[in-house]
Design brief:
Blueprint (H helix, E strand, L loop, with lengths): L9 H14 L55 E5 L2 E5 L15 E4 L6 E4 L4 H12 L9 H5 L11 H15 L4 H14 L13 H6 L2 H7 L6 H18 L8 H5 L6 H11 L10 H10 L7 H9 L7 H14 L12 H4 L8 H12 L1 E3 L6 E3 H18 L10
Antiparallel strand pairs: 1-2, 3-4, 5-6
Helix pairs in contact: 2-13, 4-5, 4-10, 7-8, 11-13
Amino acid sequence: MKMSKPRFSKDTSKYFGDAANLASTSRRLTRSSLAQFAYAKPSATNDNDAANVDIEDIGGRPTKKRRWGSSSVPVSLVKTEVVENDLVTAASPPRKTARKPRKPARTMKDATTGEAKTEPPSDWEVMYDGVKRMRAPGGPAYGAAVDTMGCERLADRQASPKDQRFHTLVSLMLSSQTKDTVNAVVMRRLQTEMPAHKPGAPVGLNLDNMLAVDPKLLNEMIWAVGFHNNKTKYLKQAAEILRDKWNGDIPDTIEGLTSLPGVGPKMAYLCMSVAWNRTEGIGVDVHVHRITNLWGWNKTKNPEETRLALQSWLPHDRWREINHMLVGFGQTVCLPVGRKCGECDLGLDGLCKAAERKKVLEGRKIKQEVVVSRDDGTVTKKEDVKHEVKVKEEVVNEDVPEDGSTGRV
């Protein structure tokens, strides 16, 4: 049986001829070397310019069998994007600009004196001021629970200064592992319902009533806070220490405050700032510890290490406000679970290294769709602003006389 002669086109013959010529000078085919064969505009002088040569005509071998009528250029080799309604092609994605590395706080020795000095983290002032703006009225972190129900705000302002200091200490002891909202409710109950220690004495929260109250009743009054059983014992023991060692008042030193049961460094430094108006250290809770480590300011394992790290470089005039500022920031934007990176200026501006990229991109897209159009900070959509400007122009045009005169003499 005579087999039919295979049909070879002229192009196929040319293909094998070129392959033989290219065999002597082997060349590695990369994406960049094939870029010149992407769909480009033909030359003005020669329609058969090399820019229009099929990839198969240079000796390359397709990875998959090409269907008739389909493009001979692999889709993965050409990236197409539209810029201002013009079709632009690129063989490879543009390189990303190198981001400036963010350095945490570091201790260095002075070359002349040999003394150790801690250098602050890079960009810390920009980040600090950014959070401060977000915590201001109108910002995304304004109106946190700590702003109205924080421990420093729960003392009864109608009570004596000594009782107010006692209220601050009690609120701090109850706040551990407890939300500010719950702590505020419990404190209010103690201030209004704690029985008087003797007939005729005032009802409410003071040292004498705390000493006289039955532990079981006290436990029932504070049952909503975390670890209320332990806190009941701590409150009763602390009341006895205040009576016997501190003349019925709270200690005015960090050592004295931390000697009380259930009082740690965070509570002690906050109590000194609020009750005695003396800032001797930074009150670092879980929010301050978590957020500063997310930012890369420090690499610490617990709040006490974070306190020492921050105090080594943070200016003293910021020690008192940083706790309140970051606690509110952690309650509203930088949450422990479900951080709102798309609403955070630090994430949108590329200052937070821990920001979730997907949320940041969505936040930037939303931010482009709105504009602050008034002095009072009212946020209005761009479409509404355009409409408002158009209406104003029409009103102005109606006021101008038909002859074009301004009416001025």
